[in-house]
Please model this.
Amino acid sequence: MIKKILFIIFSLFLFWGCASAPQKNIVNVKFDKLSNDYISSDITILLKNIYSPAQTNIVINVKNNKNFNESLQSALRSVGYSVREIRHKEAAIYPNELQLEYVIDKIKETSEEKRIRKINNDNSIIFRVSVIIDNKMYSRMYKLYKNYEISAISRWLESDIISF
Model:
């Protein structure tokens, strides 16, 4: 029970730190097409539960990772979202559009965590996907296995973005 409570507290601190992170489309984990599609589909399901697809125009600021961007745009369009991509931050965003940004980053492990995973022959990578849209950030943890199988290991966590 104490381990669960500590894990929840640790996760909250991890996600809270992301609220002040720079808002960029960063991907520092390499994915295959199926992993890109899985994460894109997961983001689409999240957004579908919050924003009506037929009435929402989304703008994605494309910076890098062409494969993931294409997968995300395809998934969003497949359920009815209007998606426009821009290549630089200064491009015009109209009042009826929501700007979507994301960060995908690998979770840094302590040496003890690495040692335990090595003993258990666990070669997986734990990473976090954060989606920033409409002054809210939604984050979720995933596990990527050596054979490129992927699974979500947490629920979506919502937090407000605080501007100073």
Q: What stands out?
A: The beta strands are 26-27, 57-61, 82-86, 97-106, 125-133, 136-144, 150-152, 157-160.
